Amino acid sequence: MSVAPVIGKSYDRPASLDLPRSPRPRSNSNFEKYAWLFMRFSGLLLIVLVFGHMFIMLMIDGGVQRLNFAFVAGRWASPFWQIWDLSMLWLAQLHGGNGLRTVIDDYSRKDSTRFWLKTALVVSMILVLVTGTYVIFTFDPNITG
């Protein structure tokens, strides 16, 4: 039994597949595996931290009407809440930065573009982390106008 030829198609050789989009070479490093695991675990922990934060801020004891400078000053007087908010800041920044790093790797074609985008990402992440950490630990409730 023979197969009738289709116009414009040749069945003599198998169809070839295009190369993957990502031009970067694969390394033997486990960095991507650990980055993938970090995204899963940090995402779960962020859900707990963020929903806990929202529940406390919006639902308990009068809701959003009580949120003011004095509330924040009282909250950040406790090391527990400083660590809670610091954990939320650091995990959200690292989680989002890791996700954006993956997007940059997936969609930037040129190595130079990838380098500059990742450089801008790292610089902005460091600025946000340093500034946020500084504010949380040096917050002065005794502000004078």
UniProtKB/TrEMBL annotation:
One of its GO terms (molecular function) is metal ion binding. It is found in: Membrane. It holds the Pfam family Sdh_cyt. GO terms for cellular component: membrane. The chain crosses the membrane at residues 34-56, 115-137. Keywords: Heme, Iron, Membrane, Metal-binding, Transmembrane, Transmembrane helix. Its main location: membrane. This is Succinate dehydrogenase.
